Amino acid sequence: MTLVKGRAVGLATLPLMCSEAREGADGADFFHPLDAAAVLRQARVFMRLQAPEMKLLTGRRLALMSPHPGDDEGSEFAQAATALGAHVSFVQPGLDEHSSPWRVDATARMLSRLYDAVECQHLPAALTGRIARSADIPVFAGLATAGHPTAVLAQALDGDIVWAVKRRKILQAALVVSLA
Q1: Which end of the chain has less neighbouring CB within 10 Å, N or C?
Q2: CA dist., res. 66 & res. 122, Å (int)
Q3: What is the pLDDT of residue 24?
Q4: What pLDDT shows up at residue 50?
Q5: Is residue 173's pLDDT more than 80?
Q6: Coil/strand/helix, residue 165
Q7: Where in the sequence is the domain holding 151, given as residue range(s)?
Q8: Exposure of 136 by Cβ count < 10 A (0-12 exposed, 13-18 middle, 19+ buried)?
Q9: How many CB atoms are located within 10 Å of the residue 93 CB?
Q10: What is each CA distance from 87 to 6, 91, 108, in whole angstroms?
Q11: Residue 171 lies in a domain
């Protein structure tokens, strides 16, 4: 799930994915058909290129906030983002579900100043939601995890390419559609 407060992000040529909160929600949810279609369309472009990665996120700074940033899912996120030219920093969370609202707000504001987006992995959903509501940047809730809604989109990509490569293309497409 990607959550954004305050400003629209996305490619002008594609339907906006993760651009703003939907009514009654804390943010966009990737379940919406337009969101999935935008990601699939961009991933198919990446699959057709079959060339060295285009550096579409050069100059972008992303944070991976996780108590276990070196696990497979954290590595998947970092590899997908750096292949697009982004710089990924690993951030130890220092927050938990019992953190004061002031502390969560202050942390979210600081993250918004330092990064263009934050990937939260292995954090309680309530905490990720609190961070997202206070941040002015996209906050992904486990975008690279197996349980994220975008994981099933890899199955919709054609070709005899292994699932791991398809998943990476989906991650990259989600990042590009959200940040470019």
Answers
A1: C
A2: 6
A3: 31
A4: 63
A5: yes
A6: helix
A7: 2-6+27-166
A8: middle
A9: 19
A10: 23, 13, 19
A11: no
